[in-house]
Amino acid sequence: MPCPKCGTREKLPGQSVCRQCLTAYQRERRARVRAALAASQNHADSAFHSHMQPTANPQPYVSPSESLRLQMIRLYNLERTRINNLKPHRD
Ligand SMILES: [Zn+2]
User: What is the pLDDT of residues 47-57, one digit of tens each?
Assistant: First the structure.
């Protein structure tokens, strides 16, 4: 049974293609995973650097979770002020 991909070599037993095509496929898949990892790493690095150098960027990077945290703090302070204003004044 010849390999359907290259048509020149015999298929590996239990595989649909020959060893050369299987190796090439695995190498290509690993390269794709590495490229994706490198891309996400580069993205994290650029976010990190823009955070570390806020003067170089007019709008410093704020992560969504940090932005949410700041929003929660603002809401908490607002609520605390409101509750304090509701309390009857002593003295
Ligand atoms: Zn092949």
Answer: 666 666 555 55
